Amino acid sequence: MSPSADNLPQETLPTELGCEVLADGVRLQLRLDPDLPWFAGHFPGAPLLPGVTQIHWVMHYAASLLKLAQPFHGVDQLKFQRPLRPGAECSLRLQWQADKDQLLFQYLLGDEPASSGRVRLIP
Fold first, then answer.
1. What is the pLDDT of residues 60-118, one digit of tens each?
2. Of the candidates 71, 75, 79, which has an alpha carbon nearest to the alpha carbon of residue 113?
3. 110: burial class by Cβ within 10 Å (0-12, 13-18, 19+)?
4. CA pair distance 58, 36, nearest whole angstrom
5. Rounded to whole angstroms, how far apart are CA atoms 111 and 89?
6. N or C: more exposed end of the chain, with fewer CB within 10 A?
7. What are phi and psi of 68, to 5 degrees?
8. Are 120 and 75 in contact (CB under 8 A)?
9. Radius of gyration of the chain (CA)
């Protein structure tokens, strides 16, 4: 199943603590509530947010906040540097590059990168 821009059910989304509109995108402050279903079974005793969930959230917020409706085509330069764990507060930066039909994203824990990548959309 490829990530889509469809609205995800509220119970599958993090708590939004803030949103800042930037010239080329947005920055969200998020809390990863421990009861999110994504943590169940991934992994018992040391839960972390799955990478596919991070991409789904990128697509969700790109559709809802940046009004991007293009279908998902793929991900490049995907890097996972730090695990996103239950209860963590993080920021998500989305940067739209219209000339390339791509969306850059970066999750940060404080000032430290947690994950990043480049989502290609179908023009």
1. 999 999 999 889 999 999 999 999 999 999 999 999 999 988 999 999 999 999 999 99
2. 79
3. exposed
4. 16
5. 12
6. N
7. -85, 125
8. yes
9. 14
